[in-house]
Amino acid sequence: MKRAVLFLLALALVAFGNQNWSFETLVLSIPDEDDFIYEDLKFGINEAATDTFDRDIDQAHPPCPPSGPCAYFPLSGGLVAMLEYDYRPIAGEGDTVTWKIRVTGTTSSGIFSWNTAAVPEQGEFWAGVSYPGVPTTEFIAMETNSSIALLPAQELTIKWVWNSEKVVEFVPEEIELLSNRPNPFNATTEIAFTLPNEQEIDLAIYDIIGNKVATLLKGSMSQGQHSAIWNGTDQRGNAVSAGLYFYSLTTEEGTVTRKMYLVK
User: What residues form DSSP beta bridges with 176?
Assistant: First the structure.
């Protein structure tokens, strides 16, 4: 069954290209609100995502405070109304995916900024501001502009256009087990790794005394970057206790292990 899933994902990559990306450098600053800074918003494209709330990929935004600024991705049609992480499914060539970021709890102007060098290379990224219910008509390119001003009550619109001709294929030079994100975590965490060539792998979770808790991925994987989500459960689907855990990647060249913390 797992090989069949991997085969379908490989077909999707052939058809749509390497669309998986995550935008993680967006920062909202409001100087008149005691130099308020918020930098926890993340968004992107993930082949396992849907257009609704995905428990293992998205992250719900905590309730806004009774006073003071609050920024989030609004979501309608479900139990979760605000997101801190908002990931969408893969798109077709030339399709446009749009994110809205709403800012509440302030009557002051703000600035959204980002690192232009960290803008993903997949597709075209545009940013614009407007008032709720009013179409955004002017956009700036996020690859060449590093900030945009926001007036009180305005919201930010980010528009991504999938353009496969802009994709630069990432070819890893070595095996690398990346830091899980987030860490510590209290619901789910993403574990990513890179392979310089196709080979057999085993990605597993272990507890502090070395017992295997769960196997996330096992089998032949292609060259490139791969990732898996761990939701804090064991192989039988039972929730595990909070504490220190280890995630280990075994390949044909050896084993690499890193640690992470589950908090509840």
Answer: 194
Strand runs labelled E in the chain:
21-23, 27-30, 36-38, 42-45, 59-60, 70-74, 82-88, 96-104, 110-113, 124-130, 140-141, 147-150, 155-161, 176-177, 189-195, 199-206, 212-221, 224-230, 243-251, 254-262
Question: Torsions phi, psi of 226, nearest 5?
Answer: -130, 160
Instruction: Point out the least confidently predicted range of 36-40, 61-65, 172-176.
Output: 172-176
Coil vs helix vs strand at 258: strand
Provide the whole-model pTM. Answer: 0.60
Q: Identify the pLDDT of residue 172.
A: 76
Q: 249 - beta bridge partners?
A: 203, 256
Q: Residue 224 in 3-state DSSP? A: strand
Give the per-residue pLDDT at 13: 36
Beta carbons of 234 and 256 less than 8 angstroms apart: no
* DSSP code for 164: G
Domain ranges of the chain: 18-166, 176-262
Kindly indicate the confidence band of residue 222, based on its pLDDT and cuts at 50, 70 and 90.
confident
Model pLDDT, residue 171: 65
The closest alpha carbon to 53, from 72, 28, 80, 29, belongs to: 80
| Domain at 176-262, CATH class | mainly beta
